[in-house]
Design goal:
Blueprint: E1 3-8, H1 16-29, E2 33-37, H2 40-45, E3 49-51, H3 79-91, E4 96-101, H4 103-115, E5 120-124, H5 140-161, E6 163-169, H6 176-185, E7 189-191, H7 199-212, E8 216-221, H8 229-236, E9 244-249, H9 261-279, E10 285-290, E11 293-298, H10 299-302, H11 311-319
Parallel strand pairs: 1-2, 1-4, 4-5, 5-10, 6-8, 6-9, 7-8
Antiparallel strand pairs: 2-3, 10-11
The protein binds 6-O-phosphono-beta-D-fructofuranose.
The site of 6-O-phosphono-beta-D-fructofuranose (F6P) has 9 residues, from loops.
Length: 324
């Protein structure tokens, strides 16, 4: 193993730079050439990449985003696109590939792993925390803290003006951010894609909670089956004419910012482990973290559509509602 290529792919996540730094430094210290491919699979197809040096990763551990860029590549879904990507890696004499990304990127990585004979290792990098086989993904902890900070601020207005706020957070297919932000910010309700939303139940819970309190925070994951925060507000509005309802979409603010200590540590451990796995001759694996231990998980398993949410955790929100 003389040369290892790596990409960041899909939505950026805080901690990706810490991971890139770990890969580059560990490679250079072990006489391996670290080869960055820019803008994910798209850059691979367009033959854009370069060898990185120590100086390229100076002072990036604390920075959000990804210095090598990322993309969601439509061309990579086609066989023609993937053939070009593989030809580029072969031309560059790459011996191993590391993909830092989420479920879409791992779906691509799993297909690529079958089509080429270059070993491939995945590192979970997404704020959604929706990959199977790891307790946490890089970026999730930072995003969760960003959301909690924003919800705390909105609560000041909610309680001052006696308003019910529907706050929409990211999570197209997963309610991790919504659920744990709801627990950590003391929200009165939470709606996530893993559960069916009942508008009558929601109306009832708002009425019951607001007998004892005159403001409420309801966290809505963007992928909820009843719609986003605005649609849900409009569905409950006719039943709650006496209430002052508002909605806020937090949006991409959740993906930015300096990574938390947990994300930097996770990213560093996973980056080094990915290089080690390639050196040990492993392939088609994701590096995960389970009970504080680094684990290897077959990449196909990580993208299974199973529900990773602990639904008992979800009950905490209802159990701690003020129902006087
Ligand atoms: O990074 C994952 C994610 O944040 C999802 O929760 C969200 O639906 C999606 O990315 C939005 O990403 P973009 O706007 O970049 O397509």
């Amino acid at each position: 193993m003389k040369k290892i290529a790596f990409i960041t792919s899909g939505g950026d996540a805080p901690g990706m730079n810490a991971c890139i730094r770990a890969i580059v430094k560990y490679c250079l210290n072990n006489q391996i050439i670290p080869f960055a491919v820019y803008d994910g699979f798209q850059g691979m197809i367009e033959e854009r990449g370069s060898v990185l040096q120590f100086s390229d990763v100076d002072n990036i551990i604390q920075r959000g985003g990804t210095i090598i860029g990322t993309a969601r590549s439509a061309a990579f879904i086609t066989t023609e696109g993937r053939v070009k990507a593989i030809q580029f890696l072969q031309k560059e004499q790459v011996d191993g590939l590391i993909v830092i990304g989420g479920d879409g990127s791992f779906t691509g990585a799993a297909i690529l792993g079958k089509e080429m004979n270059i070993p491939i290792i995945g590192i979970p990098g997404t704020i959604d925390n929706d990959l199977i086989g790891t307790d946490y993904t890089i970026g999730y902890d930072t995003a969760l803290n960003t959301v909690i900070d924003a919800v705390d601020k909105i609560r000041d207005t909610a309680s001052s003006h006696h308003r019910i706020f529907f706050i929409e957070v990211m999570g197209r297919n997963s309610g991790f951010i919504a659920m744990n932000a709801a627990i950590a910010s003391g929200a009165e309700s939470v709606l996530i894609p893993e559960e069916i939303t009942s508008i009558p139940d929601l109306v009832e819970s708002i009425r019951s909670n607001n007998k004892g309190k005159r403001s409420s925070i309801i966290l809505v994951a963007e992928g909820d089956d009843a719609g986003g925060s605005f649609e849900i507000l409009n569905q409950v509005k006719p039943f709650l004419p006496e209430y002052n309802l508002r909605h806020t979409v937090l949006g991409h603010i959740q993906r930015g910012g300096n990574p938390s200590a947990n994300d930097r540590i996770l990213a560093t451990k996973m980056g080094v482990e990915a290089v080690k796995a390639l050196l040990e001759g492993k392939s088609n694996l994701m590096i995960g973290s389970v009970n504080q231990h680094i684990v290897h998980v077959p990449i196909e398993k990580t993208i299974e559509k199973s529900d990773k949410i602990n639904h008992q955790d979800l009950d905490l929100v209802a159990q701690l509602r003020t129902n006087s």
